[in-house]
């Protein structure tokens, strides 16, 4: 037995037990090596006129023997001589593929695509095999040689027989344990599923002898009671698709084919809303096929949902979901990215240079936004359906990034316009603004119907300004994170109509409210005392200024709005949620105000206290806020009915 040409056992243990995290990729590695061997022979046929070879002769065959517990990967490639077996397999981490790729880099072209680069993929076989036998016959040679090892100390090389050029890798699988079930790889279904998962797009046919069933011909003398008989037979079947759909010209693929690919690969029963095809060449060449789903998966907003695109290198699956290729705000996008230029780590399970991923991710981010903008501008109904499914995530992307993503996502947001009574963008809202309007006004709550009836909303609408009615729990947080929309001098502040100071009143209205507040300082002081810490102050409202308007309303000063307080209080494990600084605003034009003044002037402190509580709780109900003491409120209302 010959020893491995390294320091050896420790390095081999590292190769087998530490580099790879998933045992099932052994078949991917062996098929990739087989594909490289076939590529080398095909390249030789292109550069040597004496080599007569048809591409139809090139293939990879996978088989298994359940009784012998073997899995075999055979190829019709270039093969190896005795010296090459010694050099490539006897020296760990020596890559003949990398050597070939380096020597022939400029001459390969698109017809040859060498996958292996590190020379360690072969040793992944020892994760599942207790012995590996490699039988190889080099192209143009009459001799075949067998390399055999148990992956522990060394190997043997001896003469063997093989009728044609190429290589057979025969794995004798380990016995099952309680933790590992190696018998999985001794089944037609098990091997086919691995081929389809990892090697479906290897450019050469990967064949298997598959068991099938067919009905026997009906005998001529069969009677009326004849029952059909079936027989089993074996047929060689090509398992892989070879040409990936993302590398085919868009003009050669129908929408139905794209839809079927999406549904079968990403487990959705509905067609995607949009399909995005990307082909990039330059410093980094890659193909991408992206899909915008038409509906959100059930777990999209759960902590278990994992975003990412399937990442391929030279048509071989590297990662099921590469998270770095998508920003969180576009986590709903599904698809694949394929690039031969990626610098993979030694196990080909992760990447060495994240800058390459970032470059691709930046391009895809812009492409996704561009496609969404086209849908928004040209197919508004489709976009509104999309936004209904995924708009929450776009809004959350702004909040989660502390406003850094508002330039990317702000243009994509939609909100219901109280004035126009339809969904609008910020741009559409500002385009319809009166020239004297200085801000974008919004109200946040649980339904557009309830928001449209709020006194503070109607007070803004009465001045000719539109109000965006926001009904998702993330809306208030998104607006407060954004603060403004637009660029430079045209930027507009985002203002909640339930905030303390909207700045909409005229100087005369403002002065009148201040004078009325000062004039009734004693009344408001008594009301504030009756309400205690529930409010920070009581004052005359500049929002409610007519007898037809509500008698009072609740607004909030400071960073915590009424809607934020309500949402935070409903969050599990929140503890004591922050409170808004509530202000009770009184409509000085309403008849109730005259009643309050009369009670104060008559010294009826109990009536002032009761009415203050009633107005405050009534205003809370209008805002959709919970009452602090519903029983007391109900009793107070009942007392008025006596």
UniProtKB/TrEMBL annotation:
What start-end ranges are recorded for coiled-coil regions in this protein?
Answer: 354-389
Instruction: Kindly list the GO molecular function terms attached to this UniProt entry.
Output: ATP binding; ATP hydrolysis activity; ATP-dependent protein folding chaperone; unfolded protein binding
| Gene Ontology cellular component list | cytoplasm
CDD domains, from UniProt? HATPase_Hsp90-like (cd16927)
Main location as per UniProt: cytoplasm
Q: Where is the Histidine kinase/HSP90-like ATPase domain?
A: 22-177
User: Where are the annotated segments for C?
Assistant: 567-642
Q: Which UniProt keywords apply?
A: ATP-binding, Chaperone, Coiled coil, Cytoplasm, Nucleotide-binding, Stress response
Q: How does it assemble?
A: Homodimer.
Q: What is the protein name stated in its UniProt record?
A: Chaperone protein HtpG
- Organism, as annotated: Slackia isoflavoniconvertens
């Amino acid at each position: 037995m010959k020893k491995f040409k390294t320091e050896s056992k420790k390095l081999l243990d590292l190769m087998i037990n530490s580099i790879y995290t998933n045992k099932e990729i052994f078949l991917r590695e062996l098929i990739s090596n087989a594909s490289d061997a076939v590529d080398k022979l095909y390249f030789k046929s292109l550069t040597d006129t004496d080599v007569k070879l048809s591409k139809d002769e090139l293939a990879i065959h996978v088989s298994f023997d359940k009784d012998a517990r073997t899995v075999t990967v055979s190829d019709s490639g270039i093969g190896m001589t005795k010296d090459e077996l010694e050099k490539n397999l006897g020296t760990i981490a020596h890559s003949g593929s990398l050597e070939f790729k380096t020597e022939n880099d400029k001459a390969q072209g698109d017809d040859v695509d060498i996958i292996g680069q590190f020379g360690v993929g072969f040793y992944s076989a020892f994760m599942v095999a207790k012995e590996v036998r490699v039988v190889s016959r080099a192209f143009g040679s009459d001799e075949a040689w067998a390399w055999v090892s148990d992956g522990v100390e060394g190997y043997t090389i001896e003469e063997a027989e093989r009728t044609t050029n190429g290589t057979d890798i025969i794995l004798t699988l380990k016995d099952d344990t309680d933790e590992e079930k190696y018998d999985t790889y001794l089944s037609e279904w098990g091997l086919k599923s691995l081929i389809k998962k990892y090697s479906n797009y290897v450019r050469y046919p990967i064949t298997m002898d598959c068991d099938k069933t067919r009905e026997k011909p009906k005998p001529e003398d069969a009677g009326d009671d004849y029952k059909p008989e079936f027989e089993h037979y074996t047929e060689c079947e090509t398992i892989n698709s070879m040409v990936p759909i993302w590398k085919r010209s868009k003009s050669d693929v129908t929408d139905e084919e794209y839809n079927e690919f999406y549904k079968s690969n990403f487990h959705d029963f509905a067609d995607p809303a949009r399909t995005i095809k990307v082909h990039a060449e330059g410093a980094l060449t890659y193909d991408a096929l992206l899909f915008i789903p038409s509906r959100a998966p059930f777990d999209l907003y759960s902590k278990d949902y994992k975003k990412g695109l399937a990442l391929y290198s030279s048509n071989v699956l590297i990662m099921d979901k590469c998270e770095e290729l998508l920003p969180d705000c576009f986590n709903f996008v599904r698809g694949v990215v394929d690039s031969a230029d990626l610098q993979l780590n030694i196990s080909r399970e992760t990447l060495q240079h994240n800058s390459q991923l970032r470059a691709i991710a930046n391009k895809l981010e812009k492409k996704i936004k561009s496609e969404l903008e086209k849908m928004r501008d040209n197919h508004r109904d489709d976009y509104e359906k999309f936004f209904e499914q995924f708009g929450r995530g776009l809004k959350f992307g702004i909040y989660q990034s502390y406003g850094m993503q508002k330039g990317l996502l702000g243009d994509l947001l939609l909100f219901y316009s109280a004035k126009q009574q339809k969904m609008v963008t910020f741009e559409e809202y500002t385009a319809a603004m009166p020239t004297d309007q200085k801000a974008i006004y919004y109200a946040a709550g649980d339904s557009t119907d309830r928001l449209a009836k709020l006194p503070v909303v109607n007070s803004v609408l009465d001045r000719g300004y539109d109000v965006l009615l926001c009904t998702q729990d993330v809306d208030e947080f998104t607006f407060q994170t954004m603060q403004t929309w637009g660029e430079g001098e045209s930027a507009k502040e985002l203002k909640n109509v339930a905030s303390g100071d909207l700045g909409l009143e005229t100087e005369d209205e403002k002065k009148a409210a201040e004078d009325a507040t000062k004039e009734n300082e004693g009344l408001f002081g008594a009301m504030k005392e009756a309400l205690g810490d529930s409010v920070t102050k009581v004052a005359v409202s500049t929002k409610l200024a007519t007898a037809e308007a509500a008698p009072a309303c609740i607004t909030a000063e400071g960073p915590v709005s009424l809607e934020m307080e309500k949402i935070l209080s409903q969050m599990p494990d929140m503890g004591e949620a922050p409170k808004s600084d509530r202000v009770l605003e009184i409509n000085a034009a309403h008849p109730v105000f005259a009643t309050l003044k009369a009670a104060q002037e008559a010294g009826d402190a109990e009536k002032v206290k009761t009415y203050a509580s009633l107005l405050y709780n009534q205003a809370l109900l209008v805002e959709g806020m919970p009452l602090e003491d519903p029983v007391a409120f109900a009793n107070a209302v009942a007392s008025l009915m006596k």
